[in-house]
Each structure stands twice: as C-alpha cells, then as structure tokens.
# Entry
Amino acid sequence: MKPLELDEVDPDDTRTALGGKCRGLAVLRRHGFRVPATWVLPAGPSPADLGGADLGGLAGPGSWAVRSSAAVEDGPGHSFAGLFRTELGVPFDGLPGAIARVAGSGAAERVRAYQARAGLAVRDVEVAVVLQRYEPPRAAGVWIGRTPDAGRLEWASGEAEECTGGSGTGPAGRACLGVQRALGGVADLEFAVLESGLTWVQYRPVTRPVPERVENAGPLTGVPASPGVVTGTVARPADPYDPSWRPGSVLVVADTGPDWVPLMAEAAAMVTTVGGNLCHAAIVARELGVPCVTGVRDALLRLGDGTRVTVDGGAGVVRVTGR
# Structure
C-alpha cells in the first residue's frame, strides 16, 4: 500500500476510509487555500499493516506530522476533538511506528467514554492516517464561526478576538472570514503561521454554537464555554487516573487533554483555570452536553475538594453554595 496524495482525493468522495480530516483538507485545497503537503493512508487495514505501508516516495530530510482522519471525526454532529492520536516532528525513519500508533488510537478508552456520553454506538473506530510535512509554527490559532460574517479567533497563546467584517478585525481574522465565506456557512478552522506564510491545517463544520460572553456579577467568572446550569460537589483529581475521582462531581482542573475525556464524560459540570471557548475542554464539553466554564484563574485556589458550587456554563459564572 502506498499513501495517496491529497491532490488525488475528491472532497466529494463519500468513502469513509478517507476520514473527516482528509476531506476537510481536500475542501480547502479545492478552494485554493494553502495546506501542508499531505498524503493519506485510508482506513481498513490493521494498524500494523498501515505501519508497513510503502513510504519510499516520501523519503528525504525534514520531519512529519502524523494525524488521524477517522470517518466519525470532524463531522457535522461530532468532532471527536483531540480524541485520536497525533504525533508531530516525526523523522522519516519513525513514520512506521507513528502511523501504527495513530491508526490504533481508535481503540482508546477515551474514545469509548466520549461515544457513551454522546449517545453513540460504543465501538472501536477505524482510523485513516494523514501524513503532512511538518514545520514548527511561529504561531497557531483556532477559529469558530458564529455567523457567515462573524466568528471568534483564539491564538494558542490564549489571546482571543471577536471578529466581524468590520475594520476592527486583524489580518488573521480577515483571513478566517475569507475562508469561511468561500466555503459557505460557518466553519471551524485551525491554522499555523509558518516562516513561509499562513497555512490551513484543519477545516470542519461547527458542531455546536459558541456561547456569547455576557456581563455578570458572579463571584468566580470565566469564559462561557458550554451552556447549562448544574449544582454539585467539586472534585479535583490530580490526573486523569486519580482513583479519588467521583462520577457526577463538578470536575475542577487546570486544563484538559484527550486523556481527561473519560472523566469529562462522567462529570456533572467542568471548570478549568485556563482556556477559552475554542479550547479542547470547551469543544468536547459542548458536544457531550456538559456545562463548562473555562479560564477561571482562581478556581484551584478557591474551590476545594468537596465544595458545593453552581456552575452556569452559559454565563461563565461559578458560585460557591456551601462547603
């Protein structure tokens, strides 16, 4: 098996073996937007067999990004954001192992936890593998559209910008608006600023609307990341495998990553000290229907284990109701 070049992929191809990420990149390429040099190994063979693919045509200096592209990923209903494996900066001789690991990540427990909470069939997922030439970015960001003419941009540094077609929008915001308008509708985009210029690394539909920030007078405030109001008891596990975790608690942590998804799926609500409403915790919380407030800087200082709180994810407020 040899990898397909992205130029060989028809964005309208409905074959599930290519996966959502591959199709999104093909859509961007078809519209003339710059994406990294990309190849794809379709799903179907075992992870070990994918790892044994003929990569001779890719040999040479430089490093690679090895990314997932499952059929269920980056779709209109569920993004499975961050649940499958990604490996960056992989040397050519490390590609077989990285490909096998990424292809095998569809069997991870966090994927099953997400499926269960989202009401999806709980099963292992076949994962296609995207191979991209990798260049460390000078900056990176995420865009989620609110309307065809407006959206929110967040940089990896944590800086955020509400963008419209008006004069207050910066170059990156204008670029995101331009892509969104060309694609039609609202878009969820990821981009990287490289030495060679702006490059688009992901396009997918927006699965859930981003809550608007509202003014409030709550004692603890942050970013409204996922709507809903829940009263519960705080739990602060030290890591995703902490046996003290109590399902049904309000999960309070600094930040989340893919390994936290099983706990997120069991949480009544979530509070993080960093992040915005486009971060991993926010996107997954919205898709799972878990109220979430991100960017509550003092949460770990003021919310001890066992504290009773009310989390209003739509307003970005956390109120202490008891100890």
